[in-house]
């Protein structure tokens, strides 16, 4: 068996392929928003709950919200959904719409949203 064949068999055994998976159908979003310094702890608790519930959605591949290390009132949101439809369904969930309504009262700046796509 050639080295190429051994590599191919090894990669296939790991569930990988020699060509990159086409992930262009995925919906990937990176967003950031700065909160008012007076934001109550309850909003942060709601944000932790939003992350947990979002991760349970069948179309959610990844959902993370972190604070910027040098700007603790700035949240950075990174979301990956299987496709645009899964993302749209996510946005319609009651806990998401509720979080966005609550965000309106505590944000110090407009949310910046960037759609991303994988390098291929």
Describe the fold and architecture.
With 120 residues, the chain is an alpha+beta fold. It has one domain: Alpha-Beta Plaits (2-Layer Sandwich). It is built from four helices and four strands. The protein has a four-stranded antiparallel beta sheet. Strand 2 and strand 3 form a beta hairpin. The longest helix is centred in the middle third of the chain and has 15 residues. The N terminus is likely disordered.
Counting H and I runs of at least 4 residues, what is the number of helices? Answer: 4
Number of strands: 4
- Here the CATH topology equals Alpha-Beta Plaits
Low-confidence blocks of residues: 1-22
The total tally of domains equals: 1
Task: Report the CATH C-level class.
Answer: Alpha Beta
Main sheet characteristics: 4 strands, antiparallel
Portion in strands = 25-35%
What does the average pLDDT come to? 85
Distance between the termini: 29 Å
Please bin the fraction of helical residues.
25-40%
- Outline, from the CA principal axes? globular
């Amino acid at each position: 068996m050639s080295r190429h064949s051994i590599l191919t068999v090894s990669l296939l055994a790991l569930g990988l392929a020699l060509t990159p998976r086409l992930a262009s159908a995925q919906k990937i979003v990176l967003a950031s928003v700065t909160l008012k310094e007076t934001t109550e702890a309850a909003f942060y608790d709601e944000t932790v709950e939003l992350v947990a519930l979002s991760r349970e959605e069948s179309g959610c591949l990844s959902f993370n919200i972190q604070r910027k290390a040098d700007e603790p009132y700035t949240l950075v949101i990174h979301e990956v959904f299987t496709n645009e439809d899964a993302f749209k369904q996510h946005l319609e969930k009651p806990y998401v719409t509720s979080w966005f309504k609550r965000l309106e009262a505590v944000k110090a700046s407009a949310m910046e949203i960037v759609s991303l796509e994988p390098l291929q």
